[in-house]
Amino acid sequence: MFKEAAESTNHKEVVEKAIYYFGKTVQKVVAIEELSELQKAISKSIRYDEMGITNPDREEKIREDVIEEIADVGICMKQIMMMLDIDEKEIDKITKEKIGRLNDRVNALIAEAKAANHLD
């Protein structure tokens, strides 16, 4: 039914195989775990920022950890989208709406700050 995992470079095919062989429930649990790992990596980044630690090697390691966890979460989100039959266009539409709302909130805060400080 499927090619060997090592032979396949098609992301969609690999995701389909993971869902098929590991099962939907397990892959949903993996997604939750990966989200938690990303949360932990971001938390660690904040902690080191707030502590004022300036160690380039440590900063790079934290950055690499965040990148790795973002990649893991991205893969899991592709699996969730496939399991729930969610099209990328649906995600893009909602993302544009949410970015628009974020833009409105930021602009409102900027306007408030300017008004409070009597800035132009």
Q: Layout of SSEs?
A:
Blueprint: H1 11-22, H2 24-51, H3 56-83, H4 88-117
Helix pairs in contact: 1-2, 1-3, 2-3
How would you characterize this protein structure?
The protein has about 120 residues and is mostly helical. It has 2 domains: about 5-85; about 85-120. Helix content is about 80%, strand content about 0%. It has helices at about 10-20, 25-50, 55-85, 90-115. α1 crosses α2. The radius of gyration is 20 Å and the shape is flat. The termini are far apart.
Summarize this, please?
With 120 residues, the protein is mainly alpha-helical.
List its traits.
2 domains, 4 helices, single chain, mainly alpha, 120 residues
Helix content: over 70%
Along the chain, the helix and strand elements come as HHHH
Question: What characterizes the major β-sheet?
Answer: none
- Rg on CA atoms, Å: 20 Å
Number of domains: 2
Q: Which segments are poorly predicted (pLDDT under 50) over 5 or more consecutive residues?
A: none
Shape: flat
Report the count of strand segments. 0
The SS-based structural class is: mainly alpha
Q: Count every helix, treating DSSP H or I runs of 4 or more residues as helices.
A: 4
Strand content of the residues, in percent?
under 5%
How widely separated are the two ends?
65 Å
What integer is the average pLDDT?
A: 90
